[in-house]
Amino acid sequence: MSDAYPTDLPSWQALENHFAAELRFQNIAELFVEDEQRFTDFSLTAGDLFLDYSKNILSARTRELLIGLAHEAHVPAAIESMFAGEMLNNTEARSVLHVALRSTPSDDVASDIPGVAEIWQTLDKITAFVDGVQQGQMLGCSGRRLTNIVNIGIGGSDLGPVMASRALRPYWSPGMSFHSVSNIDGTQLIDLMELLDPEETLFVICSKTFTTQETMTNARAAANWVTERLGAAAINQHFAAASTNHEAMDVFGINPDYRFGFWDWVGGRYSIWSAVGLSLALVIGSDRFRELLAGGRRMDQHLRTAPLEENMPVMLALLGVWYNNFFGADSQAVLPYDNRLDRFPAYLQQLQMESSGKGVRRDGRAVQCKTGAIIWGEPGSNAQHSFYQLLHQGTRLAPADFILPVVSSGGSQAQQDLAIANCLAQSEALMDGYHDADSPHRIHPGNRPSNTILLQQLTPGILGQLIALYEHKVFVEGVIWGINSFDQYGVELGKRLAGDCFELLHGDSGRDAENDSTKGLLARVKHWRP
Ligand code: F6P
How many angstroms separate the CA atoms of 260 and 153, rounded? Predict the structure, then answer.
């Protein structure tokens, strides 16, 4: 990886000049007039995904300079160093090997790194367990089938299984259902307790560390419920776990046959490919789970072999840098036109904002340019009736990624055709605008950039490609900015202070809050607290 600040690289300077002199006020629609081949020239295929990036404020020269930036930032070498198992997560002294989880042994991805050789044994153990539950060989304590799968986790130990299980709803095995509990306030579990029969429920405690307050609090509450209803011995057959912390799984009393390990080189937000995917696998089945992994691997191969100008994650990353650092865009919208992807924006929020929300470089020096954008979004037509007003006529630049499956994900194709029409109409309206209005209030200025990622259907394999696409996009952006995309120290301080605030709330320490606002709020909370 390059030690230089990106802003010192010759291509960055060239991009600044190019932006100021040519692209700042460039009209996208004019670029289409100048180049009849623009759609062909500015679109590309990776596996089963098709990316149209022609509706961006970018010329062939811009792309050339951005590719130059990727070379000067040593992106190709960085990609290979990830697959070689180099310690890319330097602040935590770890390799970054979610790519190994979806590789095959013959790919030989970082095979010398401890743990890598165990990947496929663990996958086989997951397969046997999932098959056992689905085929009714592994039953609840009263002999009933375990059909309600409840994932207890938070962050990457929640968002991946939740997002993917919702996206793959048509692939749920008959009779299986997926539920999740993540938040600390306990209401999700209370609601589930009303809905579910504990005799048919399998809780999957999903936590890399097995110490996370939210997860362990919810797991203990679930264990109490099962114990009250079915007796303490039922924990053995009604709790499974995915974690790197074997001791803590012992202490909790997780049955050794129901526990699945992974390794410290799997980051939480990159962990859906590991045992963290257990609850997902339990509802979609082990074959479908392996198809998801194969999809991720397909995108890995694309990343490693496609030239930079035909490389989809690299192109998305360069567009991200272009808007973030040259146009000054603060945010990036994600707009899937398939309600099954309703948690995909939330999934990408953690992936991108926890990875790229950094102000310090890998080498400890402060960054000298903006890093990660704010990611936000909602499924398509709901969003049209909510915040698209701002996208069309507001004063901020918010580049958008439209994600569009062509074949309905289990609904009627006639309705999906309407979703397709809406998606295409929106990207066109954003770009072309509407200028002939009789009132200034009706004018749409246009020239608002977007990508469209087209896919035939939301299958496990294609979802795997889509997730890996964004993982690699985030990685490449991080390489260019010179940050470590794989640590998350920014979430620690609040966790520590929460312990303090909890103590103050209960008031048994005799201490008071140091901050006047916290002190005042605590006094009001105590007054109102039952
Ligand atoms: O607080 C952030 C975080 O560390 C995430 O990175 C992680 O996905 C989440 O908490 C959950 O952590 P764990 O899997 O260890 O419970």
Answer: 15
